[in-house]
UniProtKB/TrEMBL annotation:
Protein name: C2H2-type domain-containing protein
A Pfam family reported for this protein in Swiss-Prot or TrEMBL: ORC3_ins
The entry's keywords: DNA-binding, Metal-binding, Nucleus, Phosphoprotein, Repeat, Transcription, Transcription regulation, Zinc, Zinc-finger
Family listed: Belongs to the krueppel C2H2-type zinc-finger protein family.
PROSITE patterns according to UniProt: ZINC_FINGER_C2H2_1, ZINC_FINGER_C2H2_2
GO terms under cellular component: nucleus
Predominant localisation class: nucleus
Molecular function per GO: DNA binding; DNA-binding transcription factor activity, RNA polymerase II-specific; zinc ion binding
Compartment list: Nucleus
Length: 1368
């Protein structure tokens, strides 16, 4: 022990010396190790870490940090000295060095400000030496320590001290300091300041870092700065700082803080953003902020009272009703019934806040109150009345009537859901919205005031209610007891008066009936007929909205049935608006029909022979869309024999229509299943099947919208060219030109040859889009024809004229006499182009003079005086050449009268026109060629938009995508069918996978993960990917993952976030790899990106031979090509939204900057020898000398040093390779990938790629497979004797050779059939062939011949030849 040295200091010095010796021994062992460099390096790293942990564990950082600093100093220097013996292929070498540096930095930051000078000088020298040693081998992990060692202390830097003391130095000094420190060290400094409760200084430093341009996108300095402000600044200063931050960026910051475990900071930041939105009255991202705020607050606040208190504070800040509704939603979700009084208080404040102009918000508040207090009858009445007064409609009126006609319910004080004082305050707030106070009114008084507010609809409702009340009054009078009379005279007088009244009433009814027969209908009867509704379930009629109340009677097994359309509903709340919409729609249609009837002119005479009782002016018309009840038909029957309706106009004969009423039979009524019913039927988990259906539907609608938008963009170029060609051709029809060229073109029919490719199913969409654009911008006269409807010339002319003129066209020698007699009153025109010319002149004159119809006038505003007539031939190859030639010849004769234009849809080649049309016909056409985008390019765009994106969570796996692409390439080339196949895969995934409820957007998936049931958690634990994840965890974590549902839900949220990040990194890296390899010779990884994507989905792409070949080809790439490809990769990485992609972009930019450096590192003296390899062979030598010279030349070639470009190229490719290995792992390596990936390729192939031959053989060999009849079940290889005849004959023929004897075949068949009939095998008739069996056998054999299994042969008369082999 030295003088003045304490025992403790002596022990510390001895421990440090022992540590240095052990490190030296470990380094010596590494140098002398017989193992491979990689294994020896791995062993060294493990033992090094064990020694360091063993010695560092003797001291605690809080109590004795200085000995620990000595330990780290010795460890860093020892590791740097051993770096020359460590292999660069070992992944642990840089990892240990990086962790060692970070641990040392954390220790230094926690040290006191004054460190002993000797110790600090020793630390500085050791770090400097270690950093220089490591830099020689390309390691920069000690950059932070080196930056700190340049200063006399950890916190003594003058610029840093000035920043922390709020004395801002020069901006250049600040930037220089920030550049030297680096983002990682600065982040650690800020976290240490926050940990030491020095948030103000941390805020100043974080602000400086966030404003430094070089650190944009590096580190979370902005969110750290805002969190520090939440802890230190006042409300006004905080609002001023976050005013410029977008809410979506704020949400991302909150999510980052929550994922890092800083829930307190996330809550502070979320509260600040939410308060800003509340004060501004802005609903942008308000719901997301409210939801996050409630979840974070519930984690920090254990009691519901504290949560409700915070909600009350936010309500006082809110300026919008939407914010209050959001808070009510989260209160109900988090605390349930406990927060009901607070929700009512918020509703009262919302009622006072809502303006009189915003009716929808006030109506929403009333509905919210009704949902919050469903058992308080008085409050429900007040809310419904308030809703009616805001929007006085028929639906709301009948809802008020239904509530006021129900008996009053008195609630006991102890059963009130909210305090009575709060309830009275709520009722008072509702009554302040009323124009009157109906507290002491009965229903009749209230009804009168309500009807006065409804206007015209109120009078109709009043008349209907009067009819209903009259009917009920008659029933009540019949039930009452008769009056008592004083004497016989009084009885006789009253009886006589009653008889007279009855007689008068009958006379009045007879007169009314005569008037109805003559066509006079009262207003009361019209209203009754307009509002009459018919129940198809119980065969009854109801007036007005009373059928809504009647619909509640059809409740069975928990299902409500609509009495009008027979659809099923789960709740009454959904049923009532549905039935009310039926009533409202039908009433509108009928009232409109009756208004149209009243406007008809009076007839001058009756022309119906069998309806001669109608007088002048009596008209009754029932529109086609009006639903007529049986009573209506009976009342309108009159003296007409068939309940005919008459429409009379003065100049034309009357047309009669029969009106028949058919009531649906109760036996034939069936419940019509909806799409949701088909989806939920057969689902494994019916609990969340409806949610999965909604997710599936929402996702598909978004995918469909994007694909349709993409297809419109792809077709836009060719459609614009077509439109320009047609507009240009219009000028050739101008008359009076003297130009010879224009005259020649005027005799030609402008024709656009549109080559669309062989993907025929996609053509309809293109032609429909072309037709719509032509009608909108060029001409209203567009007609499309197909070959199937134009088999003859007259048929083609007929289709063209009918679709242009909108009337029936007669063809010569086609009509039968009976057809002519039935259509005698229907206008028909002759089928010829002369008729079309006359019609065209008439229409264009009307359009020019402004007397045409509204549609023609609107179109004619922007078109020429003579708009062209465009005829589109959709499938030119399928037309009969003769028909097409004759049609063109006829049209060419009228080219001066009709501005005709043709569009030919060609699927194969433009030469089709030359093959179908001779020169004499094609010379009449002015043809211009238009080529559409190829279907393969179209498919690549669709895959890039829908599949190779992280926007949509649903993904097909490699086999499924291969099936879809194979069907496209080898069957139809139809992009439309590819999209339908993708839709089928999406539907199958959501139907068959119960956990697909998590296959949605990230925010919704995280919410659904918290709502998983116990059964769903069990399914989650049974997923293979999740089981692999559990196996990788520690023992304690495994127990939690297998026993705790809440812990599984938390882990599930984390894994879903990781899966989203995986997808973002995957697709960015995939595009970079495709950019590099798409131009290589022979395309080792595929020419299309979908081929590379499928390879990456199947297994690790870097293990393929093709990948190795591609990397070898890249190492031979020239500088210009490589830099160009890397620049494209940089552009792709810029779109990456993750931290890893931003870090990769920075690294790639550094590599690209190196390529721009001039010069060469190496001047190889041996290069001269390599340039002239024959210099050493000039002399005449023997064979041994020649061999020696060649070996020396080969050795010199190997030892040639690499150029600067080759070094940089290898670095770039190593960077790309590391990027591929990090982010292009197959999805099977990710936990919970089953949630998003659909893998049942066999199911998809069975649905999309039918195999009829296999299906037929399966049906014949095993009929039970399709018929599901238990009598047909048999063992493999056998046939049931109860099977159909063709199945028996088929199975018997499989046992024969190439030729089959018909008689032997018949006998075998008869034996099997006799066994099926139950005959005794020992009887004489068993197996005997009778006429019936013979006929059945001949029929079965004929069917087999028709199916192609056998055929007759000339080799033997009584034999047939077998055609198929290897049947199933």
């Amino acid at each position: 022990m030295a003088e003045g040295e304490t025992e403790k200091e002596y022990a510390t010095r001895k421990a440090i010396e022992r540590l240095r010796e052990r490190f030296q021994e470990l380094t010596t062992t590494l140098k002398e190790s017989p193992e491979s460099p990689s294994d020896a390096s791995l062993r060294f790293c493990q033992e090094f870490c064990q020694i360091l942990v063993e010695h560092a564990g003797r001291w605690k950082a809080e109590e004795e940090p200085l000995p620990l600093l000595e330990v780290y100093t010795v460890a860093i220097l020892s590791y740097a000295k051993a770096i020359t013996c460590l292999s660069s292929e070992c992944e642990n070498v840089p990892l240990v060095l990086e962790n060692l540096g970070l641990s040392c930095v954390e220790l230094l930051l926690s040290l006191p400000e004054s460190v002993p000078g000797a110790l600090w000088e020793e630390f500085q020298s050791c770090v400097k030496s270690a950093h220089s040693l490591l830099q020689k081998h390309g390691n920069t992990q000690l950059h932070m320590l080196s930056a700190m060692a340049q200063e006399p202390g950890v916190w003594t830097n003058t610029t840093l001290s000035s920043i922390l003391s709020n004395e801002m130095p020069e901006i250049d000094r600040v930037h220089e300091f920030l550049q030297i420190e680096g983002p990682t060290l600065l982040s650690m400094r800020i976290k240490h300041l926050i940990k030491q409760n020095r948030a103000e200084k941390a805020a100043v430093l974080a602000k400086m870092c966030s404003e430094y341009p070089e650190y944009e996108g590096k580190g979370n300095f902005k969110q750290t700065y805002l969190v520090c402000l939440c802890m230190t600044k006042t409300q006004e200063q905080l609002m001023q700082e976050i005013m410029q931050v977008d809410c979506k960026d704020g949400l991302e910051m909150i999510c980052n803080l929550e994922s890092d475990g800083d829930e307190k900071g996330a809550l502070c930041l979320c509260s600040a953003f939410l308060e800003r939105q509340l004060l501004q009255g802005d609903v942008y991202c308000a719901w997301e902020l409210t939801l996050f705020w409630s979840k974070l607050l519930m984690r920090s606040e254990s009691s519901a009272d504290a949560f409700l208190g915070q909600c009350r504070k936010l309500v006082l800040l809110s300026r919008s009703v939407c914010h209050i509704l959001f808070l009510i939603k989260v209160i109900q979700s988090e605390v349930g019934e406990v927060g009901l009084p607070v929700c009512i208080e918020m509703c009262i404040q919302a009622l006072q806040m809502a303006s009189s102009d915003n009716t929808d918000s006030r109506t929403t508040i009333c509905k919210t109150i009704s949902c919050l207090l469903p058992t308080d009858f008085e409050v429900k009445r007040a809310c419904q009345l308030t809703e009616f007064l805001f929007q006085p409609t028929v639906d709301s009126y009948y809802a008020v009537e239904a509530l006021y006609n129900e008996p009053d319910e008195k609630l006991e004080d102890e059963n009130l859901p909210v305090p009575n004082s709060l309830r009275c305050e709520l009722l008072l707030a509702l009554k302040t919205q009323w124009p009157f106070d109906p507290e002491f009114w009965d229903w009749r008084t209230l009804k009168r005031n309500c009807l006065a507010l409804m206007g015209e609809e109120g009078s109709i409702v009043s008349s209907i209610d009067t009819l209903n009340d009259a009917d009920e009054g008659l029933e009540d009078d019949a039930a009452e007891k008769g009056p008592e009379f004083k004497d016989l005279e009084d009885f006789i007088l009253n009886t006589t008066n009653e008889l007279n009244e009855i007689a008068d009433e009958k006379e009045k009814n007879r007169e009314a009936k005569k008037l109805r027969e003559k066509g006079f209908v009262s207003a009361r009867f019209r209203n009754w007929r307009a509002y009459m509704q018919y129940c198809v379930l119980c065969d009854k009629e109801f007036l007005g909205h009373r059928i809504v109340r009647h619909a509640q009677k059809h409740f069975k097994d928990g299902v409500y049935t609509c009495p009008i359309c027979a659809d099923s509903f789960d709740t009454k709340e959904i049923l009532e608006p549905h039935v009310a919409s039926h009533v409202k729609q039908s009433c509108k249609e009928r009232l409109a029909a009756m208004k149209a009837t009243r406007k008809l002119p009076k007839p001058t005479q009756s022309t119906s022979s069998h309806c001669n009782n109608f007088k002048d002016g009596a008209v009754v018309k029932l529109e086609a869309e009006t639903i007529v009840s049986p009573n209506d038909a009976h009342s309108l029957d009159g003296n007409c024999n068939s309940a005919e309706t008459v429409k009379v106009s003065p100049p034309k004969p009357v047309q009669t229509k029969g009106c028949f009423v058919f009531k649906p039979s109760a036996k034939k009524r069936r419940k019509t299943p909806t799409v949701e019913d088909y989806f939920t039927h057969g689902c494994e988990d019916t609990e969340n099947s409806k949610l999965r259906f909604r997710n599936c539907q929402t996702l598909w609608e978004k995918m469909k919208a994007d694909t349709e938008l993409l297809q419109d963009e792809l077709n836009r170029k060719i459609l614009d060219s077509l439109l320009a060609f047609i507009r240009k051709s219009v000028s050739t029809f101008q008359r009076g030109t003297d130009d010879w060229a224009s005259g020649m073109r005027a005799h030609e029919i402008p024709t656009a040859a549109l080559v669309l490719g062989v993907n025929v199913p996609d053509h309809d969409m293109t032609f429909q889009c072309l037709s719509d654009q032509l009608q909108q911008s060029v001409t209203p006269f567009v007609v499309s024809v197909q070959a199937t409807e134009c088999t003859a010339l007259n048929h083609m002319l007929q289709r063209v004229l009918e679709r242009l003129m909108g009337t029936s066209v007669s063809v010569d020698n086609e009509e039968e006499p009976e057809q002519c007699s039935t259509n005698v009153n229907q206008k028909r025109v002759h089928c010829s182009l002369i008729t079309l010319c006359n019609w065209y002149k008439t229409v264009t004159k009307k359009a020019a003079s402004g007397t045409a119809s509204k549609k023609r006038t609107s179109v004619g505003k922007d078109m020429q005086q003579h708009p062209p007539i465009v005829v589109i031939f959709k499938d030119l190859e399928a037309f009969t050449p003769k028909v097409l030639q004759d049609f063109i010849l006829i049209c060419s004769r009228y080219v001066e009268q009709l501005p005709l234009m043709f569009v030919f849809g060609i699927a194969t080649s433009p030469s089709t026109i030359q093959h179908m049309l001779p020169h004499s016909v094609s010379s009449l056409l002015g043809i211009e060629l238009f080529q559409s985008l190829s279907c393969t390019q179209h498919l690549a765009s669709v895959i890039d938009k829908v599949i190779l994106t992280s926007q949509f969570p649903f993904k097909p796996n490699g086999k499924v995508l291969q099936v879809l692409v194979s069907i496209f390439l080898y069957h139809d080339f139809s992009v439309r069918n590819f999209i339908k196949g993708l839709q089928l895969a999406l539907l199958e995934h959501f139907h068959s996978q119960p956990l697909s409820v998590l296959c949605c957007k990230k925010e919704a998936a995280l919410v659904h993960a918290t709502e998983l049931s116990h059964r769903d958690v069990e399914r989650l634990q049974q997923l293979p990917s999740f089981m692999r994840y559990v196996e990788e965890q520690g023992p304690q974590e495994q127990v939690e993952l297998l026993t705790s549902d809440d812990h599984v839900k938390e882990v599930c949220q984390k894994l879903l976030k990781d899966l989203c990040k995986y997808h973002k990194n995957y697709y960015t890296t995939l595009r970079c790899l495709h950019i590099l390899t798409a131009s290589l010779p022979k395309y080792p990884l595929g020419k299309q990106i979908r081929e590379l994507h499928i390879s990456c989905l199947e297994k690790n792409v870097w293990e393929n031979d093709e990948y190795v070949c591609a990397m070898q080809l890249l190492r031979m790439m020239a500088k210009d090509e490589l830099t160009s490809a890397l620049q494209k990769c940089a552009e792709i990485l810029k779109s990456g939204k993750t931290k890893k992609m931003r870090a990769a972009l920075l690294q790639l930019d550094n590599l690209l900057s190196k390529f721009d450096q001039p010069g060469d590192l190496v001047e190889n003296a041996a290069g001269e020898d390599l340039t002239s390899p024959g210099k050493g062979l000039q002399k005449k030598t023997d064979l041994f000398q020649l061999q020696k010279t060649l070996l020396e030349m080969k050795k010199s070639r190997r030892t040639k040093e690499m150029s600067q470009f080759e070094i940089f190229r290898d670095q770039a490719l190593e960077f790309i390779d590391s990027l591929v290995r990090s982010h292009l792992a197959p999805p099977e390596s990710q936990p919970l990938y089953e949630v998003c990936y659909y893998s049942s390729s066999a199911v998809l192939r069975r649905h999309l790629n039918a195999t009829p031959r296999t299906s037929i053989q399966t049906a014949l060999s095993n009929p039970y497979h399709y018929l599901k009849n238990e009598d047909l079940r048999a063992e493999d290889g056998t046939v049931s004797n109860a099977a159909p005849d063709i199945c028996i004959v088929y199975k018997l023929h499989l046992e024969c050779g190439r030729l089959i004897n018909l008689y032997d075949w018949l006998e075998a068949y008869a034996t099997v059939v006799s066994a099926a009939e139950g005959k005794d095998p020992d009887s004489v008739d068993f197996g005997k062939v009778d006429e019936l069996k013979h006929a059945r056998f001949i029929q079965a054999v004929s069917e087999l011949e028709f199916l192609g299994f056998i055929k007759s042969t000339k080799q033997k008369t009584d034999h047939v030849s077998r055609l198929t082999w290897g049947g199933c």
